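The methods section describes the discrete structure representation at length, but only in general terms. The central task, working out the structure tokens from the amino acid sequence alone, is never made concrete. Nothing conveys this as quickly as seeing an actual entry. For illustration, here is how one protein appears when written out as sequence plus structure tokens:
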Amino acid sequence: MSRRLFVSLCSALLLALSTEVNLAADLSVEQIRDRLRAASASALADLSGKDLSDLDLSGIDFRHARLQGTNLFASKLVNCDFRGTDLRSANLNGAWLMGADFSRADLSGASLLSVVVLGGQVKKMPIFTGARMSGVKMIADLPGADLAGADLRDARIGVNIKNQGMGQMRTDLSNANLSGVNFAGADVSRSLMTFANLRNSNLRGANFSLVKLAGSDLTGADVTDADFTEADLQGVNLRGVVGLDKARGLDRAQNFDKALR
């Protein structure tokens, strides 16, 4: 087979695959925009359960949409406005979230594995202030992100060591604003939380084993029954912490003697 014929066949195959991917979505970008233009706060555009994967939806205002169970896998959601939007059980795995605003959105039970937040022209982290994220599954690089007041009860943010692929990844919340976050019952094991703001957060029963917490501020946090086994507590501010005497694993934590108490 000649090189020219081989290249032509490869180009045709790529075009066919691209067309197939575009056709996989239930709606086109323009159809989505049309539905949203016709929507209002009292008459939401119901996109629940739709396959909107691999679409470039950047800059779209979804505040008048219902996206419960919607498949947004690998979609570009750069600078999208999701404030207050219903995204329960939505699939955002591999989605591009740079500059997206999820403030007060309901992401309960949603999946945010390997989301893209770095690269491209937009350098702003997504915002999750006050978002409802109970039971969310998330592996993401979110250094410096704002999750203040978010509800992350029973969230699964920790590394699954049984999954070799995921075992090479971890959630990075270094320098993040996690003040007032509800982490009760959450698994955040092996995450990076150095210099994070965890003031007045609820960590009751959370799994913080092997978490890098060095330099973080836990002033006023409730750590009752939280597990800090092998967590790095160097320079962590534990002044005013509630339930420290009931926390687990402190005898096996790293640098507990260098925490501020």
